[in-house]
């Protein structure tokens, strides 16, 4: 059977992932996509930037385990993309494990995995506990606070700075630059964020070259891969990109889940479930990186009789795939809790190498918050919470709550 081509960049059927209608109710959007297109959906990441979004679990696993047909190097694609395109900083070529072909990927991933795996988990736990205590002490003792910016993001960024041996000054600029890059709805913000990020990580590399420490940056510099300054900077961009915004949003989204699901909150307080189970539920239902894991087939690629165009992004919808009816048919919704068959960490050669670290940080952050503030309430009705528009993330604009003294 001749495959059906999915290559019309101007197709009126393309779904705009950058509009607020999508961010306000993505699950309804995935349902409409599935009804209209099946598991492979023509989308726009930004006006005039076409891509294919994979919302079928089986099809996603096939693609993620086939780096020869679906390599992660966007070099050819980005030649046609304006430098001020707001999604380009998230997708453009970088000499790192996330954006390189199979051969280069092996070298970069080996260095990153070795540097990450050498982290002492007990020391990391102590570090996160200290940072959580500091962040909690900085909150108002009572009244309204934004747990996303005033707690979750602080814990994520400060922990990453500690792991990577980054001082406060460049660390603050890195966090700001990374937040701007994720704000793909604002071209000027994304471009400026990319510049700030590049300058700050270069400063971190120079610092650790002169003053080595017991940190991931120093271990990357010492790795037999012999990464040069440019390669080093881009490894750090990847680590910060995976470790600040997605982690902060995972913490915030899980807190929201606990605050808004009475059954789950009751089970948690009664000891019948755990914070780890809440994290897995969010990673299954609404992972903070909703659509990513980009690849760029060098030739038209046939997936289940659909021909995906060459040199056009193929994105995996972790949310869409996790909630694929082919996967979840007959499943009790409560059975999702504790189920780790989700794709939130990706799978295949690009599986996240820092899953255990992310779990530890998020679980510790939420546990400390609930221990310190057992009576937390949303400061606004759930219907008034706003989700940030953008094609990649599932992120609140804020998480306003009221705390008791």
Written overview of the protein:
Helix 6 (102-117) packs across helix 11 (216-222). Strand 7 and strand 8 form a beta hairpin. This protein has a single domain, classed as Cytochrome P450 (Cytochrome p450), CATH 1.10.630.10. Strands 2-3-4-9-6 form a 5-stranded mixed β-sheet. It has a 3-stranded mixed β-sheet with strand order 1-8-7, with no helix packed on it. It is α/β, with parallel strands linked by helices. It has helices at 20-24, 26-37, 57-64, 75-78, 88-91, 102-117, 121-138, 147-164, 168-182, 187-210, 216-222, 229-243, 245-260, 262-269, 275-285, 318-322, 325-328, 355-372, and strands at 4-5, 15-16, 40-46, 49-54, 143-146, 291-295, 301-303, 306-308, 314-317, 377-378, 400-403. It contains 18 helices and 11 strands. The mean pLDDT is 91.
Write the layout of secondary structure elements.
Layout (H helix, E strand, L loop, with lengths): L3 E2 L9 E2 L3 H5 L1 H12 L2 E7 L2 E6 L2 H8 L10 H4 L9 H4 L10 H16 L3 H18 L4 E4 H18 L3 H15 L4 H24 L5 H7 L6 H15 L1 H16 L1 H8 L5 H11 L5 E5 L5 E3 L2 E3 L5 E4 H5 L2 H4 L26 H18 L4 E2 L21 E4 L2
Parallel strand pairs: 1-8, 2-3, 4-9
Antiparallel strand pairs: 3-4, 5-11, 6-9, 7-8, 10-11
């Amino acid at each position: 059977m001749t495959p059906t081509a999915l290559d019309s960049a101007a197709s009126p059927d393309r779904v705009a992932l950058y509009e607020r209608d999508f961010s306000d109710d993505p699950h309804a959007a995935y349902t409409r996509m599935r009804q209209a297109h099946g598991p492979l959906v023509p989308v726009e990441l930004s006006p005039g930037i076409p891509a294919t979004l994979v919302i079928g679990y089986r099809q996603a696993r096939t693609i993620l385990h086939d780096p020869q047909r679906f390599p992660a190097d966007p070099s050819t694609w980005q030649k046609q993309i304006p430098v001020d395109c707001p999604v380009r900083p998230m997708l453009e070529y970088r000499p790192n494990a996330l954006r390189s072909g199979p051969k280069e990927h092996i070298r970069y991933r080996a260095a990153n995995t070795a540097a990450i795996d050498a982290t002492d988990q007990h020391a990391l736990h102590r570090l996160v506990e200290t940072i959580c205590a500091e962040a909690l002490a900085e909150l108002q003792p009572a009244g309204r606070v934004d747990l996303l910016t005033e707690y979750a993001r602080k814990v994520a960024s400060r922990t990453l700075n500690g792991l990577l041996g980054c001082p406060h000054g460049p660390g603050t600029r890195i966090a700001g630059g990374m937040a701007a890059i994720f704000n793909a709805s604002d071209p000027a913000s994304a471009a400026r964020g990319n510049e700030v990020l590049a300058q700050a990580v270069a400063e971190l590399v120079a610092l650790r070259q002169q003053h080595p420490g017991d940190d991931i940056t120093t271990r990357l510099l010492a790795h037999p891969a012999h990464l040069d300054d440019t390669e080093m900077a881009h490894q750090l961009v990847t680590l910060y990109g995976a470790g600040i915004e997605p982690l902060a949003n995972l913490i915030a989204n899980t807190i929201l889940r606990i605050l808004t699901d009475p059954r789950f909150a009751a089970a948690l307080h009664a000891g019948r479930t755990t914070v780890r189970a809440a994290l897995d539920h969010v990673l299954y239902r609404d992972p903070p990186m909703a659509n990513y894991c980009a690849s760029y087939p060098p030739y038209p690629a046939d997936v289940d009789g659909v021909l995906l165009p060459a040199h056009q992004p193929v994105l995996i919808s972790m949310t869409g795939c996790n909630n694929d009816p082919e996967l979840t048919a007959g499943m009790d919704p409560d059975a999702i809790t504790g189920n780790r068959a989700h794709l939130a960490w990706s799978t295949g050669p690009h599986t996240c190498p820092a899953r255990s670290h992310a779990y530890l940080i998020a679980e510790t952050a939420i546990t400390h918050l609930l221990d310190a503030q057992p009576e937390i309430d949303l400061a606004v009705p759930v219907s008034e919470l706003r989700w940030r528009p953008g094609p990649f993330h599932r992120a609140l604009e804020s998480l306003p709550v009221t705390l008791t003294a």
